[in-house]
Design a protein that fits this description.
Elements (H helix, E strand, L loop, with lengths): L24 E4 L5 E4 L8 E3 L5 H12 L4 E2 H8 L5 H19 L11 E3 L3 E4 L4 E3 H11 L7 H14 L13 H27 L3 H14 L4 H14 L2 H18 L7 H12 L1
Parallel strand pairs: 1-7
Antiparallel strand pairs: 1-2, 2-3, 4-6, 5-6
């Protein structure tokens, strides 16, 4: 993303949703990187989706991921590991100044209404940001409590899944080990939630819903036999023979490509034969 950087609120912590006030900015970080100021005096709000440099966007990403102040020394080490200490500190000050100009420029905001800083550390102020990541995490967590209403649980999971527009901060997380691990965690949570909602719909007899989510799940792991087998069984329930045949054909090709020309397991081949025999 070069100079297109983008913004992030690692709602991976709940700090941004704090203190009873409406967050000043909403940060979209899943599949994209931008900040929205919905209550701006401007008629259509304010959107920030381009940043001074990639490092500027990464700075905001690091700050939003942290639940506490981050030392300037650590920020310089993570952002400019090859720079001389004095040069790194200057670059950090320049990046922070740019962020402040963009995020604290509204006259309606009190001075220092988004970022906090002293000679040692930099941080985001409580209540400054809300994020799609926080909403996604909250939705997934809420469905882990025991509940007898499977339809309601499935609905909550689906609302969380709808927020996952793609990997966390694509093109940005890869530059930082901590953020990259968070990207992997969220991807795993998304996959787990998909698996859960497929099972919930299947067990409740909502087979078309289960098929839709199983297809998305197979798209994440195109050579996963377990998911393919489940999808074929669901197609049998919905009577979608042609869709099942297409799935068998494309899956077998992908599986062989991924496994050195070897064929899928006997179990899957038997399922495929059953599909063709219908």
């Amino acid at each position: 993303m070069g100079t297109d950087g983008a913004v992030v609120k690692s709602s991976m912590t709940a700090k941004s949703e704090s203190v009873g006030t409406q967050p000043v900015w909403h940060l979209q970080m899943l599949g994209q990187f931008r900040a929205i100021r919905p209550d701006s005096p401007a008629s259509e709000g304010v959107i920030i989706d381009r940043f001074q440099t990639q490092k500027t966007s990464l700075l905001l990403a690091i700050l939003t991921h942290s639940s506490r102040p981050v030392s300037r020394e650590d920020l310089v080490e993570r952002l400019w590991p090859d720079a001389e200490p004095a040069a790194g500190r200057d670059r950090l000050s320049q990046a922070l100044s740019w962020l402040r100009r963009r995020f604290e420029s509204d006259a309606a905001l009190p001075a220092g209404g988004v970022f906090g800083a002293d000679r040692q550390s930099v941080w985001l102020l409580p209540g400054a940001f809300s994020t799609d990541v926080a909403a996604f995490d909250a939705g997934v967590r809420a469905t882990r409590a025991p509940s007898g209403d499977t339809e309601q649980v499935a609905s909550v999971i689906e609302a969380a899944l709808a927020l996952y527009a793609g990997p966390l901060l694509p093109g940005i997380c890869e530059e930082d080990a901590v953020l990259f691990r968070e990207q992997q965690r969220l991807a795993g949570a998304y996959e787990d939630a998909l698996r859960r909602v497929v099972v919930l719909h299947e067990n409740a007899g909502r087979f078309p819903n289960a098929v839709a989510h199983a297809r998305r799940l197979l798209g994440l792991n195109p050579a996963d036999e377990e998911t393919c087998a489940r999808l074929l069984r669901l197609f049998a329930r919905t009577g979608e023979r042609e869709a099942a045949l297409r799935t068998v054909s494309s899956f077998t090709r992908r599986y062989r490509d991924a496994h050195g020309g070897n064929s899928p397991s006997n179990m899957l081949q038997q399922l495929a034969q059953a599909v063709r025999a219908r």
